Amino acid sequence: MKSVPSKGAPLRDEIDKFKVGLTTTQAPFIEEQQAKGNLYTFQPYDLYSEENHEAWRKLFARMEPRWKRYANEHFQAGIDALCLDPNRVPKLEEVNEFLNPLTGFSAKPVSGYIPAFLFFDCLRNREFPTTITIRSSDKLDYLPEPDIFHDIAGHVPMHTDRAFADTLVKFGDCAHTAAEVVRSIKDHDEQIRRLTSIIKAMARFFWFTVEFGLMNDSRGQGLKAYGSGLLSSFGELAHSLESPTVQRFPIQLEWVINQGFEIDHYQPLLFSVDSFDHLFSLVDELEKWMLDGRLNNVAPGEPGVSQEDLDSFLG
Fold this sequence. Notes:
The protein has 14 helices and 8 strands. The protein is an alpha/beta fold. It has a 4-stranded mixed beta sheet. The protein has a two-stranded parallel sheet with strand order 1-2. The protein is globular. Residues 1-8 have low confidence and may be disordered.
């Protein structure tokens, strides 16, 4: 897989090849990187348009009051530690200057979707694959794919917490364990069947924890959000903790790995953990279940597993 150094800005003649702007689904720079096979890329900061910065300003301004009300204390500390500028799209180099000394993590710019094994392997190496485009300033509420606001303002503040960062690394260990388990299977059809089930289980666990997890507040303030899908969504953050239609349960591993989900509406079912130490212990248990074969036959349903994801574990 080709790669481009993550630091440094493109030369002026490179910049001039593209229309100004790094808007999600409308960025020629990203299209070229993908065409070249550059899965990992760099952040051409000069390409961000004023409209891109305006989108960041709007998103940050309306989320700040909701973070103070609904976000867990570790996220609040992380936002402060990263010193994010509320008025402009962040430079990943600057984010990493604050982040890396705290937990060893860094934001790693990517050109789009990362196959499952490579994503988890990045986490194992304390790198977080980070989207560099941003949603349009007139479409702030819903985006089916991640953008830099979701990744940097939703995910990365949690990466400043040592216990949470170690949990992500443990997820990466699980992916390596899965690869070792399935490679030992001789029958190809059985290999694919089991791997599909394992990837589905890991994806569901990640969804209901890292993306949409709730946590009991250590200060006695009830449930708070730590999942990045909640923390980057103006509407769903409040809905997740206040709506009477949302079912909220203490997390149960067997339930979570067999629970399908859909991405195009507010989540009707959420799970809570007691702490990040609790979350780490659950990931450790997930790996043990994998080794014992307890992830080989999870319930059918979403999410789907692509051939690209399967190949990433087998390749």
